[in-house]
Specification:
The structure holds two protein chains of two kinds.
Chain A: H1 2-13, H2 26-37, E1 42-52, E2 55-67, E3 75-82, E4 90-94, E5 97-101, E6 109-111, H3 113-117, H4 122-128, H5 131-134, E7 135-145, E8 148-157, E9 168-174, E10 180-186, E11 192-204, E12 207-217, E13 223-234
Antiparallel strand pairs in A: 1-2, 1-13, 2-3, 3-4, 4-5, 5-6, 7-8, 8-9, 9-10, 10-11, 11-12, 12-13
Helix pairs in contact in A: 1-4
Chain B: H1 7-20, H2 24-27, E1 30-46, E2 49-71, E3 74-85, E4 101-116, E5 120-127, E6 166-175, E7 178-185, H3 192-201, E8 208-218, E9 221-231, E10 241-253, E11 257-266, E12 269-276, E13 281-287, E14 290-300, E15 306-314, H4 320-335, E16 356-363, E17 370-379, E18 384-394, E19 398-408, E20 420-431
Antiparallel strand pairs in B: 1-2, 1-20, 2-3, 3-4, 4-5, 5-6, 6-7, 7-8, 8-9, 9-10, 10-11, 11-14, 12-13, 14-15, 15-16, 16-17, 17-18, 18-19, 19-20
Classes of the chains: A alpha+beta, B mainly beta.
Chain lengths: 256, 432
């Protein structure tokens, strides 16, 4: 269950715009991609659906807010709307610290990052990765994906982020549109863990945003999770709203 | 035990609530119905002989919560609860007055005003305050009435799903990584004639309570400091001002480990002590500054495996020769017809008579919807305890769970002296 939350969060970071031309250094290029992938003060509704062997295993509808920062990890507030068994749960993700508040309880439970990343939940981590904050560009080369010319970024975790779930990432960015289209996420031993497709780009708050993300388990491709944004907007709220002690007071409202 | 309101009024309330639930989707209510079937066996005394009694408790609980924005930065929230219980005492040895006891209460109801949005929050009404992070025991939950139904959670958890709050005013100020809050709960008493209606809103509050909380985030750790001042007020049997202090910390270590530690201490607590275990005599005594402390961790591994362990230090509990005399007293008391003398062991509650305890829980996920858990409590002084298994199957709108718990230990141990031999809990929950 915690899984999905993270996932919801994910999308926050995904959004690209046909914005600025490529900067010069690989690091600047990566930063410009991040900039296009993030909508400041984003509020959203997301549907997270997990499949196995073609059958739907799980489904969640979640409302959320994101507070980004140039220097710090994004903070995300999530409210579970569906299904009824999880309705009313609230979650705060503050970097690697995650709090979960169950309905009718009064003390948020602190979760370990792995609890959030469990099973399909690891998809969330995939989705919310802010590449330039956590990763250095190890190499940048031309590559093709399904015949489409792309630039392939090979990323490795920064010093201090070596304990990240994904030690390295390969990210394909379409040359013609400058959209991230596909990524592979690797463990520290080089093992491929996840594959992610960024799809259904469309306008959102003045940006070109991937409304759908398909994440596949590398070991078992029959297991995959689809994250679909159904509403995206912006709402500026105080920093203190993204704090553990505000979770109880937070009144979640449907994004408009 | 929760005071019961008049049967007819309760029945009306329950019917009204049942009528509300189908409309919950439209109204945005969060509602849950839980049906518990609890077969249990206990040892009791019949005509001077100890005999096993087996009873099945049927308990239906229904709760509906809602939070409604009245206008910007002002909201009203509440939780209504009702139950129908075939064994309100909760003990197989308890004889119910009625075939079915029906009761209902407002567990919480209050106005919340964000005077400074996201920064200064004022709440007026009835609310629950549970600062503890403990699972097995909760030293920092200084204001707690216990389960509304009297049902002890069958998962090893200390806190039940539904509990009644306290009427008062809470003021919270959030600034960066610091939160300071104060909850004042006044002394509230009324005449017996007013009980029927007023107790529906709240149990009487004989004490006034003032709970000051300070929360600070230091690095990735959360630190909490608490101070509770309370008094029985003028005219009460205990007019003295009492003080309870507490502190707790939560932290993460790496990606898979969360740690928690907390401690609370009261300036004085009353208990019944053994004078002579053979003559079954006892006396009241006051224990000063006896700490309750808990330290534990949760480790998360692959395949959704989680392991939790907690150590609990109970300063009010007995140790050494005092504990031996308590056990001897209880053994002697049960060996005599009619069990003369007060039940000193029972005064402490479940697993609270000794000084040292530990708790462990291993949980996993077999399928997306199926979650097993194994848990155990051990009294580290006499090595008795309780072990249980829980299996939960959760779907979108309902969940079915089953638990079985066995109390084990010799006849001269705390768990061995528990009248409960074993218990089973089958629970069906419906979510709306």
């Amino acid at each position: 269950m915690t899984t999905f939350f993270a996932i919801a969060v994910a999308m926050l970071s995904l959004g690209s715009a046909f914005a600025p031309a490529w900067a010069e250094s690989p690091a600047e290029l990566l930063k410009s991609i991040d900039d296009r992938l993030s909508i400041p003060d984003m509020r959203f509704e997301i549907r997270v659906t997990s499949f196995e062997d073609g059958k739907q295993k799980d489904y969640n509808r979640i409302w959320g807010f994101v507070k980004g920062s140039e220097t710090e990890d994004s903070r995300i507030l999530l409210y579970f709307v569906e299904p009824a068994s999880v309705k009313g749960r609230k979650m705060l993700m503050d970097g690697n610290i995650v709090y979960l508040l169950f309905p009718r309880t009064r003390n948020p439970i602190r979760l370990s990052p792995l609890q959030v990343l469990l099973g399909e939940a690891s998809n969330g981590d995939v989705a919310r990765t802010e590449f330039s904050k956590d990763y250095d560009v190890a190499s940048l080369e031309d590559a093709a994906l399904d015949g489409e010319p792309c630039q392939l970024f090979k990323l490795s975790a920064k010093e201090g982020k070596k304990d990240s779930t994904y030690r390295s990432i390969s990210l394909w960015v379409e040359k013609s549109s400058e959209r991230p289209v596909y990524a592979e996420f690797f463990a520290s031993d080089g093992k491929l863990l996840k594959k992610a497709y960024y799809k259904d780009y469309g306008p959102a708050e003045g940006r070109d945003f991937p409304y759908t993300m398909d994440i596949f388990d590398a070991e078992n491709p029959d297991r995959h999770t689809t994250l679909t944004y159904t509403k995206i907007g912006r709402l500026v709220v105080r920093d203190t709203v993204f704090s553990r002690d505000y979770l109880e007071a937070w009144t979640a409202e449907a994004p408009k | 035990m929760t005071p019961r309101i008049a049967y007819s009024a309760s029945r009306l309330a329950l019917v009204a609530l049942l009528a509300i639930v189908p409309a919950s989707l439209a109204l945005g209510l969060e509602a849950e119905v839980a049906l518990d079937v609890l077969p249990a066996a206990a040892l009791g005394q019949e005509g001077g002989m100890r005999a096993q009694t087996e009873t099945t408790r049927l308990l239906a609980q229904l709760a509906a919560s809602h939070k409604q924005s009245l206008e910007e930065n002002l909201s009203l929230s509440g939780t209504f609860w009702a139950d129908a219980d075939s064994l309100p005492s909760g003990s197989p040895l308890g004889t119910p007055d009625d075939k079915l006891s029906i009761s209902s209460r407002l567990l919480e109801l209050g106005l919340e005003w964000e005077a400074l949005p996201g920064q200064l929050i004022v709440e007026l009404g009835k609310k629950i305050i549970h600062p503890s992070s403990g699972f097995f025991k909760t030293p920092l939950n200084m204001l707690s009435r216990g389960s509304a139904s009297g049902l002890i959670p069958s998962t090893g958890a200390a806190v039940s799903t539904w509990e009644e709050g306290w009427v008062g005013a809470d003021l919270s100020y959030l600034a960066g990584n610091v939160t300071i809050a104060n909850f004042f709960s006044p002394r509230m008493e009324w005449s017996d004639s007013a009980d029927q209606s007023l107790q529906y809103l709240s149990q009487q509050q004989d004490d006034f309570n003032d709970l000051l909380r300070l929360g600070v985030r230091i690095g990735t750790a959360d630190l909490r400091l608490l101070a509770l001042a309370s008094s029985g007020g003028p005219g009460s049997e205990d007019p003295d001002l009492r003080l309870r202090l507490g502190a707790g910390v939560d932290a993460n270590v790496g990606d898979s480990l969360t740690l928690r530690a907390e401690c609370s201490v009261a300036d004085s607590q009353d208990r019944l002590d053994v004078v002579d275990e053979k003559l079954l005599t006892s006396r009241d005594e006051s224990v000063a500054w006896a700490p309750r402390a808990l330290a534990g961790f949760t480790w998360t591994g692959p395949n959704e495996l989680s392991v939790m362990a907690e150590y609990y230090y109970n300063g009010l509990g007995m140790t050494g020769s005092d504990y031996d005399r308590l056990i001897d007293y209880s053994v002697n008391r049960l060996s005599l017809p009619g069990a003369p003398g007060p039940d000193i062991l029972d005064q402490f509650g479940g697993f609270e008579a000794a000084r040292h305890y530990c708790f462990a829980r291993v949980a996993g996920q077999l399928e997306t919807d199926l979650a097993p858990a194994l848990f155990s409590v051990v009294n580290l002084q006499d090595y008795s305890g309780m072990t249980g298994v829980n299996l939960a199957y959760t779907r979108d709108a309902w969940a079915l769970s089953g638990s079985i718990a066995d109390y084990w230990g010799g006849k001269d141990t705390e768990a061995g002296l528990s009248p409960v031999l074993w218990s089973i809990d089958l629970q069906l929950s419906l979510f709306f």
